[in-house]
Design goal:
Elements (H helix, E strand, L loop, with lengths): L2 H7 L8 E6 L9 E9 L2 E5 L5 E5 L4 E4 L7 H9 L6 E5 L5 H4 L10 E5 H9 L14 H4 L8 E3 L2 E4 L6 E4 L11 E4 L4 E3 L23 H9 L6 E3 L9 H23 L4 H7 L14 H14 L2
Parallel strand pairs: 5-6, 6-7, 7-8, 12-13
Antiparallel strand pairs: 1-2, 2-3, 3-4, 4-5, 9-10, 10-11, 11-12
């Protein structure tokens, strides 16, 4: 397991109602795979640990999951679902292509419908390395499992699933973290899952290998922040939910970073100069100080997009 994967598996969960599910898969010196379950509404939960935050939405026909965590976490995730409901998982929605949000679903029954943006399906099939995080050819877990877990339904701009209290709206607002980021809205609950377009209060990964963009990132987020009727945000990795106002602030934070990088380039400076000089502006209280490697990688992406 890579350092990134170990770090993602250790994401802590803090929330309203917490249940702990430990699912060890046979004797192993590794730590048990633990999924925590936070109740957000009577029909919606956030399942944490083992990668990105998974949303669990209970509908009349079955359980819907948004994202499915790291490889090897599919069964622990299903075990966690069973602590909440006896309903079968009938659908998975992927917010984007990255392995810590999609790879668990290869362990799901073949009957589960997988929905994603059309670009996300393509990137899942290509198994491109995450920019500045992985190098060289990547194993394609979906190919290794005979196509199990690949999206069977895609959309381009918007897609509405179900109706009434079970309605789910999917939106694509443009390039950001990847080229297929999907915003998942539960209108009856006023909740939106934004995936890793807003992972935590830190610089995001701008994965140009999978269609991501630095220059377009802030505008894409601003569109998401303006979705009407939303009051609660589920982030890609944050331990607690946030608000649309937080999304708007995050878009401004990224816009400020992009402006700083572009100003440096136009002023004859280098990416290394940006790494040496960038500090999180004081107005973004509570934001993390990004690692130099992340500043460098994001600056490189923006640099390449800036004429």
């Amino acid at each position: 397991m890579t350092r990134r994967m170990r770090g993602l598996a250790a994401v802590a969960a803090a929330g309203l109602t917490t249940l702990t599910v430990a699912a060890a898969q046979g004797p192993s010196p590794a730590a048990p795979k633990v999924v925590t379950v936070d109740k957000v509404r009577d029909t919606l939960y956030v399942l944490k640990g083992g990668g990105g935050n998974t949303a669990l939405f209970l509908t009349a026909k079955g359980a819907v999951l948004v994202d499915t965590k790291l490889p090897g976490w599919g069964q622990p995730l299903l075990d966690a679902v069973r602590t909440v409901t006896d309903k079968p998982v009938t659908m998975v929605i992927n917010t984007h292509t990255h392995y810590d949000h999609t790879n668990g679903q290869v362990e799901f029954p073949a009957s589960v419908e997988v929905v994603a943006h059309e670009n996300t399906k393509r990137f899942m099939a290509e198994a491109n390395p995450v920019y500045a995080l992985q190098s060289g050819p990547q194993p394609n877990i979906f190919k290794e499992h005979g196509g199990r877990g690949m999206p069977s339904r895609t959309f381009r701009d918007t897609l509405t699933l179900n109706s009434g209290a079970d309605r789910i709206d999917l939106h694509y607002f443009g390039r950001a973290h990847t080229g297929g980021d999907t915003y998942v809205v539960f209108p009856a609950l006023g909740i939106m899952h934004v995936g890793d377009t807003f992972p935590t209060r830190d610089l995001p990964i701008m994965d140009k290998n999978n269609g991501g963009s630095g220059v377009a990132f802030a505008e894409t987020l601003a569109k998401a922040a303006a979705v009407s009727g939303v009051t609660t945000i589920i982030n890609g990795h944050n331990a607690t939910t946030m608000t649309p106002a937080d999304v708007k602030t995050y878009s401004e934070y990224i816009r400020d970073f992009v402006t700083a990088v572009q100003t440096a380039k136009h002023g004859g400076k280098t990416v290394e100069d940006v790494v040496a000089s960038w500090t999180t502006p004081a107005k973004y209280a509570g934001y993390n100080a990004p690692q130099p490697a992340r500043v460098k990688a994001d600056a490189e992406v923006i640099w390449g997009e800036t004429k």
